[in-house]
């Protein structure tokens, strides 16, 4: 069984949002094509409290219940089978979807007999990277759609470094065109 995991495609990570990344919205058509292609789709949300140490390094973003924390209106949410909320605590970053607190992502996927996890979304160096590395650690055969992610690029080279780290961990890179026949 294979599953698609859509990471943090929320208003605040798209242009105009509190932590908007360049082209954050441009990957959404690719993600929607992937969603159409997969029988099983899960998604994560960055879902912060108002008060968290996370906001010492980042502008306030994705505060749960606010518009910035909503999925981007272009995202095809209808086919998402389950949503995992992470970054919900006050004392850590909670970058990884495997740190979701409303449900246990690894246990959920294993229960559905998912062996292959295909990942896309925002942002390359933080939540996508941490989620992807945790997917490998949790024993999933892990794939990354490189045309369906976008970086913050706080420092030049950050994106490349993150991609290298994921590739070194054994993540298989694809583009969204591959599964689209
Ligand atoms: C993220 C920075 C801060 C992400 C979340 O979703 O990649 N990045 N919080
Ligand atoms: Zn965050």
Explain what you see:
The protein has 181 residues and is α/β, with parallel strands linked by helices. It has a single domain, classed as Isochorismatase-like (Rossmann fold). Helix content is 23%, strand content 20%. It has four helices and six strands. It has helices at residues 28-37, 105-111, 124-137, 158-168; strands at 2-7, 41-46, 82-86, 116-122, 141-150, 172-174. Helix 1 (28-37) links the parallel strand 1 and strand 2 (41-46). The radius of gyration is 15 Å and the shape is globular. Bound molecules: pyrazine-2-carboxylic acid and zinc ion (ZN). Pyrazine-2-carboxylic acid (VGL) binds at residues 8, 13, 19, 46, 58, 122-123, 126-127.
Short description, anyone?
The chain has one domain: Isochorismatase-like (Rossmann fold, 3-Layer(aba) Sandwich).
Rounded average pLDDT = 97
What is the oligomer described by this structure?
Answer: single chain
Query: Using DSSP, what is the number of strands?
Result: 6
The CATH superfamily is Isochorismatase-like
- Domain module tally: 1
The CATH topology turns out to be Rossmann fold
Number of helices: 4
Distance between the termini: 19 Å
Q: Biggest sheet, in brief?
A: 6 strands, parallel
CATH architecture: 3-Layer(aba) Sandwich
CATH class: Alpha Beta
